[in-house]
Every structure is written in C-alpha cells, then in structure tokens.
C-alpha cells in the first residue's frame, strides 16, 4: 500500500459512489482529507463514517454545488484560506442528466457540474497545488468521451435539447471536455512539478444518474463480471494516480480501467494541442477567468 501520510487531499463528489470509495481509501493511506459536497448533511455523514472506520483521521467538509460558479468561487477561497498547500486535488464530482436543466449562470447543468465547475475550481486553487512538494491533479473522465462527437471550440457549451441516447452523447461531450482540460493543464504546468492526468474508472454501479438506486441486485450480479464494477473497484485508478510513487512526474496521460479500451486509438481531440488550447481559452471566458489569472 502506497502511503500519503500527512498530505492534504481535496476531493469533490465524495458522498457516494466512486468518490466515497476513493475518499475512504485515501484516508486509510494517511491523507488529511477534505471533501467538497453539495449536501452538508451527506458530507457530515460521510465524514463520520470515514472517521469511524479509520482511527485517527479527521475529515473536513466544505459545501459547494459545482454547477453553480459562485459557489465554486466561494469554496475555492475557503480552500485557499485554510490550506497553505494542497498535495492532491481529485476532480471526481459528476452527474448524468437525462434531460436538460439550466443553472443560474445559464449553462447546461451537466456541462457545469462535470466540466465548467471543476475547471474553475482547479484554476482557483492552483497556487495551493503548486505550493505542495509534488502536487497531483486527478480528473475523472470516461471512455464515454469517445461518444462526445466533434468539439466546436467556439460553441461547445450549447447543448440544446437531449434525451435518451442524445443524453448519453451530451454526457460524452462533458467527459471529452474533461479529458482535453486535463491534457492542456498538464502542458501548462510542465515547469511547475505539478502533474495532471485523466482516467476512466470503468463502468461502475453508482448513482451517477440522480435518483437511481445504487448497487441493486442486478448491479451486484453484474459487478461479478469484468464489465460492471463496484464503487471500490472503480476507485482504484483514482487512488493509484493520487498515491503511486512510480507515477511521480508522469503527466498529460489518460489511464483507462475499461477492459480492452487501451488497444483502441486515442480519443478524438486528445492529440490536437491547438483544439485543447482554444477550448481552454473559451472555457476561461465562459467562467469569467481572465487569461492572466488562468494557468
């Protein structure tokens, strides 16, 4: 087991599913844990469960809905005030909406939750990650990015109407944007010692689609196969990227847990540095992050 005793880890979306399993395992490995969640009671419950299971650990809970950019700015300011350094930032939070919703900022809810919020949070706490001895940024993307279609850097935020299969394509677009974000971030951090990598946790039985049951009987049976995983199995790659000493200095890569996918060609856009740069610039404009403030 690779220990990260005393390292400050900030993880989003840690009250259920992959995020919760990741938080538990990182606490077991010695992390000083901060979870960012949108439901304070669930956050406190999760913190209590982790503290009860891991002797000596203290879990701090911060409140923010990543789909609401004002809340992202507030929680980022709180992180910066509390911690002189953040050793690991795990951008785990995500949703899969089956129909469009609009945030108070006028963005598609799924886009804001999965991409715009994490992008803004990462940029706003980046000085704290740079202050760590060897900071790591972990972005939970997905092989669903293969279904994201062509990214128009001038209009990628315009999702329009979707349902059923189109909802899956919209979700794939958010995960493709996450991947492009992680790769461009790695390029911008090349001289800082901070690493940025993305991952696919595999197909995991979780509550990604809000309101759906977690690990029902059919899911438990399927999790015995290589194709559907339990949350603790899905968390393994995030934990690896956060803790493995052999990955120190490894950056700008996409790690997949989905069987067979590593033999396929890389995801569209992942080799297009120009596209990644322009999407970054456009995203900075959308979230109100000046180019001088961005990486």
Describe the structure.
- Helices cover 40% and strands 12% of the residues.
- It is built from ten helices and seven strands.
- The protein has a seven-stranded parallel beta sheet, with helices on both faces.
- Helix 3 packs parallel to helix 4 and helix 6 crosses helix 10.
- Mean pLDDT is 89; it is low at 208-227.
Architecture blueprint of SSEs:
Layout: E1 8-12, H1 17-28, E2 32-37, H2 40-53, E3 59-63, H3 69-82, E4 88-91, H4 109-124, H5 126-130, E5 136-140, H6 165-188, E6 195-200, H7 217-222, H8 231-234, H9 236-243, E7 254-256, H10 273-286
Parallel strand pairs: 1-2, 1-4, 2-3, 4-5, 5-6, 6-7
Oligomer: single chain
Low-confidence stretches: 208-227
Order of helices and strands: EHEHEHEHHEHEHHHEH
**SS element count, helices:** 10
Question: Brief overview, please?
Answer:
The protein is of the alpha/beta class. It has helices at 17-28, 40-53, 69-82, 109-124, 126-130, 165-188, 217-222, 231-234, 236-243, 273-286, and strands spanning 8-12, 32-37, 59-63, 88-91, 136-140, 195-200, 254-256.
